[in-house]
Amino acid sequence: MQNLSIYASRLVDKAEPFAPGHRACIGCGEALAVRLAAKAFGPNTIVVNATGCMEIVASQLPYTSWELPWIHTLFENAAAVASGVEVGLKAQMRKGKIPQEDINVVAIAGDGGTFDIGLQALSGALERGHNFLYICFDNEAYMNTGKQRSSATPFGASTTTSPAGKAQSGQTSWKKNMPEIAVAHNIPYVATASHSYPFDLIEKVKKGLSVKGPAYIQVYSACPTGWRCDTDISVKLGRLAVETGAYPLYEVENGKYKMSLVPEKLKPLSEYTSLQRRFRHLKPDEITGIEARLVEEFNRLVEKAKCL
Amino acid sequence: MSKRVGVEVSIALGDAVKMVNPDVIAAYPITPQTHIVEHLAELVAQGELDAEYVPVESEHSAMSACLGSAAAGARTFTATAGQGLELMHEVLYVASGMRLPIVMAVVNRALSAPLSVWGDHSDAMAVRDTGWIQIFTENGQEVVDQTICAFKIAEHHDVLFPVMVHLDGFHLSHVIEPIEMPDEKKVCEYLPANTNPFTLHPSKPIAMGDFAPPVVFTEAKWAQEKAMLGVKKVINEIWDEFAVKFGRTYKPVECYKCEGVKNVLVTMGSYSETAMTAVDNLREKGEDIGLIRIRLWRPFPFEELRAVLKGVENVIVLDRSISPGASGTVASEIKSAMYTEKEKPTVKSYIGGLGGRDITVEGFEDLIKDGISDRNEYNGIEFQMVGVRE
Ligand SMILES: Cc1ncc(C[n+]2csc(CCOP(=O)(O)OP(=O)(O)O)c2C)c(N)n1
Ligand code: SF4
C-alpha cells in the first residue's frame, strides 16, 4: 500500500476527538473505524451524525464521546443537515458575521442510513456540490436495531430480516454498489477504506477533506455482535475481506480509479466467511458461487484502475 | 418611508423575508407555496439578496438543511404547504427539540387523497403538536408583518423556538392586495442580528441531539415545555413593540364586536374577513353575535380565550379541517380550554371550507344562524359539515 511507511504511526495525530469511554460492544470495528477517521478530522471540524450505533454509543446524555462540535438529528438526513451546516457557515463568513476560516463539515452514517433510507438526501447533497465529506461506516446491516438486513448486506448473509431458513438462504440480493453510485455523481473524491488498514484510512479521510466539493468514503466496519464472530478478530476480518476480494480498497479521484491494494493472489472466500456465523448456513457450492461473482467484480475494478 | 403597494401576497412575503436579510433559504417547490420560493430564488439570482439558496431534493431535506444552517447560527427561512409539510413532519420535532430559530411560511393546503392543491388547515392541524410556535394570518398585511415578527420571536433568547407563519393557500397566497411594506431601515432596527448562543462551531464545541435514556428524557421535555410556557409573554412584547414602531397591533386572540354578546363565532385564518362581514350584516339585523379570531395557535392562548369568552353562552367554531372520527380540532381545543371554567359555554363544531371550498358571506350568515338556533349538539353528531352536497 502506497502510503504505508514504518514512520506512519508516529505521524498520526495523538489527539482523540472521538474520546474513549463510549458504549460500543466489545470488538466493535465501527467504533475503531470512527476513532481512526476522527484522528484525521482536525480540530476545525463539525460532525453530523445519523442515527445508528455510533450515535447511540457516543452520545448518551449527559455524556458525549465527541470533543468536536457534533449534531445528530435523524436517521436519513445526515447529508442534508451537513448541507445546511456548510451553507450556514459559508453565508455567515461571507457576510462577516463569523470569522473567515476553514471548517470541515463531516457527515457520518451507517450503511442503512446511507445505502437505503438516506440515499436520496445523500444524492441531493452530492449533486448540489456542497463542500463536505460523507463517511459511511459499513457494518453491512442495521445493527443498532438488532442486525436487520440492509442493501449493503452481502449475498447469503443471515440477518434477522433475511434469515437463513429451510426455504431461503440468507440475503437474496447482492450488495448495492454504493461507491459506484457516488462516482456517478461526478464528485471529486470517492474511496473505500477499512479499519484494518489504519494509515490508508486516515490518508483517505484527509484527502476527502482536502478536495473542494463533496467526497464520499465508505469504511468497512466489522461488527462482532451482528456478524456473530469472535470479538478479537475484527481487524483480522478486515484484512481477510480485502485479501479475498470481498471488500476491495480503492479510490476514485475525479473519475480516475486507483486500487489501494491488489493482493498477488486472492485468498479463498471461505477463509473469510468461515469465521462468521452469519454465513454458517451456506453450503460450499453456495460460497463458491458467491466467490465467483466477487472475484469477477474485483477483476473488473482492477481493469478499471488500469485503463483509466 | 413605508408605502402601500398592490402586490401578490406571496411576493410580498418574499419581500418581507428579503428585508430581514436571511443567510440561508432551503426550499422545495409545492403549490401553492411556489411563488414565495421562486421570488426568493430570483432575488438571490439578481444579487438583491445576499443569501445561500439551497434548492434541495425534498422537503425532508429542506427542513434538515434548515436545521443544519440554524444550528450553525445562520438566519434561516423556508416555506412549504400540504404534502411538503407532512414530509417534513419528522424533522419538525427535531427543530423544536433543539430550539432552533427557523422561520417557515406554511401556505395551508388540503392533504391527499383525493389530491387537492387548494387550501384548508389539514396540513397545519397534522403538525399541531410538533413544538413550533404557530401564527395564523388573515390578510396580506398580516402575512408581511408576521413574517418579520416571526424572526424576532424565533431568535429572541428567551424563545429560541422555530416559528410557522400560516397563510391560506390561494385564498391568501395568490391574491393581490394593497399592502404597506414596512420601511427596510425600520425593520433592520426592529430586528437585531441573530445571536443564538448555542451554535455549532469548533471554537466552542457542543453536542446537539444526543440520545436520552428514560432517566433524562422527561426532564428534557419538561425544560422544553417550560420554555414554551414563557414564550407568549415575549410574543406579546414583540407585537407591542411592532405596534409602536409600525402602527399595527396584533394580539393572540382578537375580538370583533364581541362586547356583551352571548354568541360568538370563532375562526382562524383568512376566512375571518368574510366572517366579519357576515357578523356586520347580522348585527345590523339585530342578531346577537360577535367574532373571535385566533391568531396565536401555539402556544395556545388559554387565558386570553377564557377572558374573551367570559359571559358568552354559545361558541360557534368553524374548523377548516377535520379530525376524522372526532370533530374540528379548534373546536376541541376550545372545549378543553373552557372545561375548567365554572360557567361553561356550549361549543358547536362546524367544519367547512375544505380543499379550497369557498364559504361566502351568506354561507357564514347561515352557519351563524344555525349555531345560534337550538340545535341539540349531542344528538349523536359531534359536528356539522358546512355546505355539503348529498
Ligand atoms: C425513520 C426511521 N426509521 C427507522 C429508524 C430505526 N433505526 C434507527 S438506527 C437504524 C439502523 C441503523 O443502521 P445503520 O445505518 O446501518 O447503522 P449501524 O447501526 O449499523 O451503525 C434503524 C433502522 C429510525 N431511527 N428512523
Ligand atoms: S452492534 Fe456492531 S456496530 Fe453496533 S456497537 Fe455493537 S459491534 Fe459495534
SSE layout:
The complex is a heterodimer of chains A (308) and B (390).
Chain A: H1 8-11, H2 29-41, E1 45-49, H3 53-58, E2 70-72, H4 78-94, E3 104-110, H5 111-116, H6 119-128, E4 133-138, H7 178-183, E5 189-194, H8 198-210, E6 215-220, H9 224-227, H10 234-243, E7 250-253, E8 256-259, H11 269-273, H12 284-307
Parallel strand pairs in A: 1-2, 1-3, 3-4, 4-6, 5-6
Antiparallel strand pairs in A: 5-7, 7-8
Helix pairs in contact in A: 2-8, 4-6
Chain B: E1 3-8, H1 9-19, E2 24-27, H2 34-45, E3 52-55, H3 59-71, E4 76-80, H4 82-97, E5 102-108, H5 122-126, E6 133-136, H6 140-155, E7 163-168, E8 176-181, H7 184-190, E9 207-208, H8 214-229, H9 231-246, E10 253-256, E11 263-267, H10 271-284, E12 290-294, E13 296-298, H11 302-308, E14 314-319, H12 329-338, E15 346-351, H13 361-372, E16 383-385
Parallel strand pairs in B: 2-3, 2-4, 4-5, 5-7, 6-7, 11-12, 11-14, 14-15, 15-16
Antiparallel strand pairs in B: 1-8, 6-13, 10-12
Helix pairs in contact in B: 1-2, 1-6, 3-4, 6-9, 10-13
The complex binds thiamine diphosphate and iron/sulfur cluster (SF4).
What's a quick, concise take on this entry?
The complex is a heterodimer of chains A (308) and B (390). Chain A has 308 residues and is of the alpha/beta class.
Shape of chain B: globular
**Which sheet architecture does the biggest sheet of chain A show?**
8 strands, mixed
Distance between the termini of chain B: 54 Å
Strand content of chain B: 15-25%
Order of helices and strands of chain B: EHEHEHEHEHEHEEHEHHEEHEEHEHEHE
The helix fraction of chain A, in percent, is: 25-40%
Return residue spans of chain B where pLDDT drops below 50 for at least 5 consecutive residues: none
Residue fraction in strands of chain A = 5-15%
What's the oligomerization state? heterodimer
Q: What ligand molecules are bound, each kind once?
A: thiamine diphosphate, iron/sulfur cluster
Cα separation of the termini of chain A: 19 Å
Radius of gyration of chain B: 21 Å
Strand order within the widest beta sheet of chain B: 3-2-4-5-7-6-13
